[in-house]
Amino acid sequence: MNSMRDKIILVDDNMVNLTMGRNMLKPFYDVYSAASAVKLFEMLEVIVPDLILLDIEMPDMSGHEAIIKLKADERFMDIPVILLTAKSDDNIDLAGFELGAADYISKPFSAPLLLKRIDNQLVIVRQRRELQDSQTSLRDCAEQLEISKRSKKQEVCSLQNMVLAAVTELVEFRDKFTGGHIARTQLYLKSLLNGLIHEEKYMDEIMQWDVNFFLASSQLHDVGKIAISDIILNKPSRLTLAEMEIMKTHVGVGVGAIERIMSHTEEHAFLRHSLLITGAHHERWDGSGYPLGLSGKNIPLEGRLMAIADVYDALISIRPYKEAFTHDKACRIIEDSAGTQFDPVLIDVFLKTEKEFEQATRQATSYMFI
Fold first, then answer.
1. Is the CB of residue 182 less than 8 Å from the CB of residue 222?
2. Is there a contact between 95 and 102 (Cβ–Cβ < 8 Å)?
3. What does the alpha-carbon distance between residue 88 and residue 79 come to, in Å, rounded to a whole number?
4. What's the CATH code of the domain at 27?
5. Which of 49, 69, 127, 281 minimizes the number of CB atoms within 10 Å of its CB?
6. End of a domain among 80, 112, 136?
7. What does 71-125 look like in DSSP terms, one character per residue?
8. pLDDT tens digits, 278-298
9. Is residue 50 within 8 Å of 7, Cβ to Cβ?
10. Of the candidates 279, 312, 272, the residue with the CA atom closest to the CA atom of residue 298
């Protein structure tokens, strides 16, 4: 028997049976008597028992009618019900089981049998509660693990962004002509991406991205410039053809660096965006770009987007060989390059978001994208 006293409600319209049953049970359980099914439901408003002993043959409301009402109420539907009957009729037994009865006991009661049947049902109740408690504990544990996972992901992303900031600042510190370029291009990319989503263009690809990873990973697009000589990087005049070829190698250097990082980590979602942006942002729609001479949609969408952001920023910025172009002039140059240098679909979106580019130029007052 359970050391904690369980509560039982005994329902019978026969006072002799009520008294006899109560006397049998009270040494082991807290027993509450109800002389009718109506009284049972009044009692259930103040007492929730662990088990109900319910007589079938009663006036006003039979045991079968009472069990139907019990099983229809979410508060009581899981309470096991043992039906009591003075009749020996398999059909009556079957009907009760179909309505949800846990067991049957014949009257007059046999004390050992009654106690054993009750104990069996209460063991099932306790096992069900233990299972529910275990499921609740597992659910709570899973929720805590998910919270911990999200927290860990945020920590990793924060650390990732700090490392990126350090690397990109190093690149921009060496190139005195492109200050703020990385922060601005992220803002341009965000405008283009939002425009694509609004226009529902290239959604099959975009839906597979983690947008936050895509925007943050774009900071590495010029990381290969670390390997370019300061003499070339900061030359106060146009580069020669030979110097331009050296400058182009920054793409391969950047790709190689990212691939080496990927070979030492299992988390590639972030780095995959970086790899595609770095390797493809100097490719051209007509195939005349570098380093691979890719054309059209063979150029990864990440690279096609960065190509527009990169060129726009170069056009509106001062360079040793030119003054900064106005926003309007930069837009016209980019528009004229649709179908040759740039993806025409992306240029349509660019032209619808160009004012955001102009605003982003003023907004990017630091090297970090926030």
1. yes
2. no
3. 25
4. 3.40.50.2300
5. 127
6. 136
7. HTSTTTTTS-EEEEES---HHHHHHHHHHT--EEEESSP-HHHHHHHHHHHHHHH
8. 999 999 999 999 999 999 999
9. yes
10. 279
3 state DSSP class of 9: strand
Residue 117 and residue 204 in one domain = no
10 touches 18 (CB < 8 A)? yes
Check which CATH number belongs to the domain holding 239 and give it.
Answer: 1.10.3210.10
Q: Could you tell me if 208 and 350 lie in one domain?
A: yes
Which DSSP state fits 239?
P
| Strands across the sheet containing 81-85 | 30-34, 7-11, 51-55, 81-85, 103-106
pTM of the model: 0.57
166 found inside a domain? no
CA distance 210 to 196: 15
What 3-state class would DSSP assign to 8? Answer: strand
68 and 196 housed in the same domain: no
261-279 core/surface letters (b: 16 or more CB in 10 A; e: else): ebeeeeeeebbbbbbbbbb
Longest CA–CA span in the chain (Å) reads: 113
Q: Is the pLDDT of residue 2 over 70?
A: no
Domain that holds residue 253: 175-363
Do residue 77 and residue 193 come from a single domain? Answer: no
Q: Looking at the structure, tell me whether residues 218 and 347 fall in a common domain.
A: yes
Split into its structural domains, the chain has a count of 2
Q: Report in angstroms the alpha-carbon separations of 224 from 118, 168, 227, 320, 344.
A: 78, 10, 6, 21, 28
Chain segment 95-104, per-residue pLDDT in tens: 888 888 888 8
Q: In one letter, which amino acid is 349? A: V
Does residue 43 share a domain with residue 113? yes
* DSSP state at residue 266: S
Residue 1 lies in a domain: no
